[in-house]
Amino acid sequence: FSETKFHGGNELDISGMITYTVADKWLKNNGKLLFVITQTHFQSPSSQGFRSFKINQEYHLKPLQVDDLKDLKPFSGAANKTVIASFQKTNRSMENVYPIPYKIWSPKKGFRRAIDEHVYLKEVLAGVNIISNEAHPVDEIRSPWAIMKPGNFAKTDTIRGKSVWIKGRKGITADLNGIYMVEILDIDKSRNLVQIETRPNAGKKDIGVAKKFWVEPDLLYPMIKGASDFKSCYFSPKNDLYIFVPNKGITKKFLLEAEDIIENDLPKTYKYFQSYKALLLDRSTYKARLGKYSYYHVYNVGEYSFSPYKVIWAEQSGTFKAAVATNKQVPLQGMRPFVPDHKIYFIDCTKKEEAFYLCGLLNCTLVREYIESHTISIQVSNIFKHMEFPRFDSKCKKSIYLANLVENIHKIAGEKDRVEQIAKVSILAEEIISISSKA
């Protein structure tokens, strides 16, 4: 069902295979099928083949309607995302099939998600809300479905498609958070050293008890840990953490340069890594991607990791939100840019105005609905695979005003005041989107 080698296998739900097998062998032409399957077939990258709705060279499986029950628990003990989908076997063209009626069921206030298997339909309907939406492929026919309010998909016409100028980046993968992500406890200016402490509770891997070390601060950067570090248009890290970034890139040049510096110029830091050599050698990402080089290197790092402005969003979040992260004072090093963990995605920017402008567009209600409409709710990663924005134009008054407005909102600590201003951002951003053409 997938052309991508990293998708399929265990990710392939057997319900998809059964759906096609039944349609092929037991449905006559124009026959209809109503199945309970998993919702991910309509939005997961690993189900692109399912979404072709092609049974064979002659027949297609035309989707008629989907009732999405993933916000409920219709089956005791089952954790999958349940949908009831109806299809029709047809030998006619699949043109003009979309939009597909897509109804989302959710519990009313005061009602439980779990549904008693023995109650009547009338009782179930009394405790749920059913919202009518529409489903469209975000790109070509097999792409993930965007599930939006009726009429809203058409409003996203100018932002649909793969971006030609924005690239979503992933934060650094270290694999051992308790060793790489630390707090600075003390400073020794005379020796140009800082005291750090390991964090045994920061990951599943046992790294032993917490230990303190004096190290050179050269490789330490302020870090963005996760979704709790920011809200829409507001960046406020929950913890005062720093991350070791031994290498500035993952090519041979950067890796060898890092080894030369660490092993010759940073003896305290090198000794620190040596103290955990066995654990560092056992990291899965290191063994898969960096095994030819020294054991302390990290992955998903490049020039973009050190950009002065980053528009950030979380890989895993119930509701999409974006903020701008800039820099912070690092003891004995001066101002340094925030570096994200691998659970954070970001756009690297060199210009402040562009960063706040993009942040404003991302926090637009229509854009957020579009992003949430076609991404699996627990994973929001490379959003620019199916989205494009108008470029920042320093001569456009609306673009400048949006950037300034978003920058000022980042200074507002009060949630209520910030929400009121974000509403203005949404209106302005939608105006910019609606009058623009794709970059």
From TrEMBL:
GO terms for biological process: methylation. Signal peptide: none annotated. Gene3D superfamilies: Vaccinia Virus protein VP39. The keyword Transferase applies. It comes from the Bacteria. GO terms for molecular function: methyltransferase activity. Keywords: Methyltransferase, Transferase. PANTHER family: DNA METHYLTRANSFERASE YEEA-RELATED, RESTRICTION MODIFICATION SYSTEM DNA SPECIFICITY DOMAIN. This is Site-specific DNA-methyltransferase (adenine-specific).
